[in-house]
Amino acid sequence: MSLRHATLGLLVEMDGASGYDLLKMFEITMGNVWQATQSQLYGELNKLTTDGFIEVASEGPRGRKEYRVTEAGHGELRRWLLEVPPKVVRRDEILLRLFFLGQVEPDEAAGFVREQVVALDKRLADLGELENTINWDDANLSFYGRLAMEYGKRFMTMRREWYEWVLGEMAERDAVKE
Amino acid sequence: MSLRHATLGLLVEMDGASGYDLLKMFEITMGNVWQATQSQLYGELNKLTTDGFIEVASEGPRGRKEYRVTEAGHGELRRWLLEVPPKVVRRDEILLRLFFLGQVEPDEAAGFVREQVVALDKRLADLGELENTINWDDANLSFYGRLAMEYGKRFMTMRREWYEWVLGEMAERDAVKE
DNA sequence: CAGCTCATGTAATACGTTACATGATTAC
DNA sequence: GTAATCATGTAACGTATTACATGAGCTG
Questions:
Q1: How many domains is chain A built from?
Q2: Strand C nearby residues, CB < 7 A
């Protein structure tokens, strides 16, 4: 049920927005935090409306609907933030592959890890670029968004170091085998 | 489609097993990597059989079915490992909450972060315990499993340090406000 | 023989992805 | 006037969670 709360939270921070606006916000600021597709978002907005957590504040051109969080919605968000224990979902495709890399040749395994390093460096660069692009005008989004961004950096750096370490371990093992 | 490959990979490493055995293996060794529920696993085993990637090698007491990976299954696993680009899903409920912590009082927000630290310490302790429990007899599972475990440790440690840093940032901000 | 563990399955529901579909408005 | 952008929606399918259901075999 977290898409629901991500939507509510963003709507509060943005002080009202359309589905289209929200979608962009998900792409830009929430890339490292929570993904959402267009279909999913529009569906959720309708459900949130039915449940009374948001309402259509005004309608604009091209069928645009500007949503706003209701009192009930603020309550729900607060309840979720403080009372619902976070559910940690652990599913990492890269780690999963690593687990089974013993089933291919050592050089193929090392190649896989090196590809991940390249991909990671690209993402780190993208993150740096994003950091410069973002308009940190909202006080809350700015403070907490910056914390999340720092997390992203630390996470990728940790991952990079671990990859290097893995390559070292692999090299060592293969050297011993000779 | 990764449950499929997690199942194939584990079946290869275990050199054949029942759904029940696999389920335990998922719980014990794959906790930090890939979660699976009982329903999901049994369903996937039947689909894998239909698709010819695994087969029932023998049947035991209580309707037990011992599965084994077929040639086609080995090929599929190899293909997935080396040719299918890993899909990174970024959804982190804790980070998501952090993003919106500006919407509750500062002390409530700090309380939330502190709770996460406690939960993390518990998981780190569990991981250490798990490390001692595991029977690292299979050469591949031992080598790659150890790499994955090291990842788990580094990940949690990074996270812990970041939480500390977050608490520091929060304290600083609140001090400035006075 | 009672209770535990082993062992598999299904049904309902929720959540997520991909693709398709449509049309209004704006900018050039 | 045509291309790009804004804007929303639905349908089909795949994946995941929860709960229910059932029974065989082992242990004391």
A1: 2
A2: A 1-3, 35-40, 61-63; B 18-21, 38-39, 42-43, 45-46, 60-65, 89, 91
